[in-house]
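Posting this for the archive.
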Amino acid sequence: MLRSTRAAERPMHKILIIEDDADVREMLVSSLRPHGFETVEAENGRAGVQLAQVYMPDLILSDIKMEGFDGFAALAAIRYQPLTSAIPVVLMTGQPDEQGRRFAMELGADDYLAKPFTISTLLATIHIQLKKQETIKQRVLNPKTAHFEGLADLGAPEVKADAQPGSAPVEQSALPSEVATPRAAARVLTGRTLGGPLSTAQTESETSRDAVKVQDVETLVETYLRMLNRFHPNLGNTAMRAMPLCRVLAEHAKFSPGELQDLCWAAGLHDISLVGLDREAVGRWLRNPRKVTEEEDAFIKRHPIDSQQMLEDLPIFQGAGRIIRSHHEHWDGSGYPDGLKQEAIPWPARLLTAALFYCSQHTLGTPALRLLRAQAGHTLDPSAVQAVSDAASETPLPKGVREILLNEMKPGQIVAKEIFNSTGMVLVRHGRELTEGLIQRVIAINRVTPLDQNVLVYC
């Protein structure tokens, strides 16, 4: 349902409400109309992104947890589109947590409201954001009154004295320099840090493919990868490993620059729709697909289609979307969503499927290649397996953060996030190398007082 209502009195500002619960939408509308706000309603994230471009609201209120295209995905799409990128967005959630709040702010949310909230809190939040937006507009219209120090009050990034005009802010990270990051991965996807067809031709994205700027593509891809990393590090790490591998695969296969670009983007964006599903269910599915319920399995098996649909509104990603749709098809016909078999599966998708299988293993190199080759002729195309085996030997894949279980810890792994006991005391600090003795101590403590079973390590 899409609906626009206008208060009988003079409208002051237009607010877009993205909420899949009809009762909550009605409550918000009835609360805002008496205060002179015009409202536009959308019942899901995809419709909200479309209406934002049509109505250009002064502010957007969006729920986070919505089926399929959720509030985080809607926010990322709104921030990417030039027409809507500056519209204030306030996210609402019935399950507030600090990690979700930080993630929302990283994606570009202007505020984060925990449900249930009072009408006075809602109105105060709206007025604060509208006032900030009006102040920014006035400073743009009256540049003589704009000062860098004043922007700090509006939440703008700090401007360093030695920053060059137009340069991107420096990303601070505690991760080792060789560990993949979404920003670095986004640049690999656009060919901006590697030689070869993409960088030589400056990609087709600035010419025949709708003249989308490379910087805009980087921003969107980086946003999607941040979402994926926050949702589940194994998904994000696999995507960032697969990008350089798929680039080499495409070069070996003598793909055109556009085909190479499509395969690289498919490697990075193939799982973006999983962010809208239950994380615990996705975690069980990643470890063993048989551990999910029939209902969860049905939702997960839709994700290749949903990921394609999330990209279909952006012409530059449509080729990647077609590859993504088939990345869970199996050589023996046992895959999904379309049950394709052997050569009926597009060749780029067969390459991507084999590359993702290899990159999803905790330990790369010989152990991963052994598992990969065991799938040749079953779930994987033998030719694609051979191509990945050849490409893997000459592709230095970046390290990343992966989530493992306590009983999967091995000597030599580096801890990427502290391991705590039940009282909050640190057992193993970030950056510590696991030894056999340390692992046994953690396991012994876990037998007495259960710990968090998920451990983050660099690998």
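Residues 6-11, 143-175, 193-211 have pLDDT under 50 and may be disordered. The first helix runs from residue 22 to 32.
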